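FORM 7B: Structural annotation worksheet

SECTION A. Query
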Amino acid sequence: MSTPTNVPAANVQATAVNTIAWLSASDTTIVVPVYQRQYRWDIGGCEQLLSDIRAVSGADATDTHFIGSILSTAADGDAGDEHLVLIDGQQRITTLMLLIAALHHTLREDDPALAADLERVLVRQDDPSRTKLRPHRAWANVFESVVLDRRSPADATRASRFDDNYAFFRSQIRPDEASAIWHGLTKLEHVSITLGPAANAQQTFESLNSTGEPLRDHELIHNYVLMGLSHAQQSEIEADYWVPIEQATGEQIGSFWRHYLVMLTGREVTVTGERGVYDAFRHEFPRLGFETLREHAARWREFAEIYGTILDPSTASDTEIGRQLAYLATFGRGTSPLVMRLLRDHAHGDLGLDELLASLEQLQSLLLRRKIVGISTDRLVARLCRAADLGRDELVHAIARITPSDERTRVGLKYGDLPHAHYVLGRLAGTNGPDGLDLEHVVPLAPSDDWSPDGSRRWADLADDEQNSFRALAQTLGNLTLLEEPLAERAFGASFPEKRPVYASSDVVLTREIADASTVWSTAAIAARTEHLTDVFVRVWERPAVVSIDDDNLTPVLDAKKRRGWPRGWQREFDYVEFRGEHWEVKDIRYLFNRIFTRLWAESPESRQAVIDFSARRGGPVYPAMAWNGQWDEIAEGRYLYMGWDSRYMLSAVQGVLEEAGWASEVFVKYSYIGDAMR
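SECTION B. Predicted structure
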């Protein structure tokens, strides 16, 4: 039996189309059904869309930009007019309409011909008072008032995603680039999928959105790098660069790209719930010609090989470097961006061996001391990468600033559980590693009733206060040691007098010292041993002696967390802000945004010029007039700060303008409990 070919599908028609031509067609009217979710795109998504349109506008004439598939089904309206019911693609189409509306309103007075082309996309040919995209009744009036520029004065303070995203596009589009943006819009393409009357719309929607695994960041990077190359060029890049990168990084290739981009940019790269790594890569490498790609790929391969050494320190060319990398691995791979940079500088002769080893030791001190005093080690490495860009002295100073002092560390060791006990005790004892050694608690974590600290009193006979004191100190530095596995079996559960001869036979100096120090194990003995070992600890894990105070776990503003929308609790995100030595009682990003721009405008001619230059380049947020309805604040005569952005964009603007002014390194935020818990 032969297999039939070229048989059309009965209920699904899919066609690749030019998006603007499809929207401009006189018979295209799109209705958003009632069951669709509300419009949810934020300014971050709008920014990416506009960036893609600008990129394709300046590309070769044959280049286009694919925006995905649009799923709809034909239907008849109440008045008998035919339209398309939008099943999937509402967010993209709505955002495009807002962009086109902003473009239309920007140039309708200066370029009537282009404005007419734009109007054909926005409104129905038979009724210019109605938009081609018709949201359902819950928010149709808001959408149409924005797109048709029919907002009343009462709408000036209205809060909606339609208003916010339209305002963003309006602020970003300069009249002299309007035609270029239109050119980019005309190069958008999508697959139009139209369902017949008998098609199962829900099943088709689920198949488009839920079938298969989404591409991971490194897979998107791989596709992005190779796309547009000839087959021969793809084969060369794949064989000479990409395969070696995969071989060097293995299953950790995704982490490699994230850490590489943090090292390259000096900024944290978000990964949760977003394509943060891929988006950061595209931002750093927007267009890659083949020769340029070769140069970049050679560097990627070199850093991937360095990353492979971090993953497996035994492959290091120098034994002591390998030992220090293995020590650092105790704390995870969070500092890998900086370590990659240091290892490459050493390999190129820009960093001596002693300086490299000192930096690796300082990183261990930083991470261990912060763990001991209960301070987070998240989001530290980007600031250290920025410091390293300025030179070794700046790096040492940056590490010292965020490394807890000896005093705080002593308190943490005295009363807190010892983190990474095998690593700490192994280095204190001078052993080659924890292999063959067990962690030994002199006072067991759960003593039996017969356990004795002195050979005469049983645990069951001790007062509750004494038992509780022992329990509180059981996992502190003074009560812990290392013991060879065969000896650990003999010591398990034994009373202290029974353990002493076992300890005395150990090859571990720290353990023999316990047998020599006392015949009775008491809370006082634990405290004395903690004090003694702490003196050694602060010498092994030194803090660079270049500053005298801790920074109270302040976060540089460049490393502050960007949050989409306005998450719950945003009004109490910060405890305070340190601004160039001043203490500001600022609790949220909205107030900080306003205060930073106001202060920069008033501070000096140089900082004011930074605001002007930044706003000119980014299209806001400071304007000479309130050019559209929305939330504004007059920060000076004839200068208006637009306050309608979302949280993420406001923080990006704060970071950008502070960098422009050269003040970013002098501004810090202190997160509140709520700010730390926000997602």
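SECTION C. Observations
Residues 141 and 393 are 60 Å apart (CA to CA). The chain has a mean pLDDT of 88.

SECTION D. Sign-off
Analyst initials: ____
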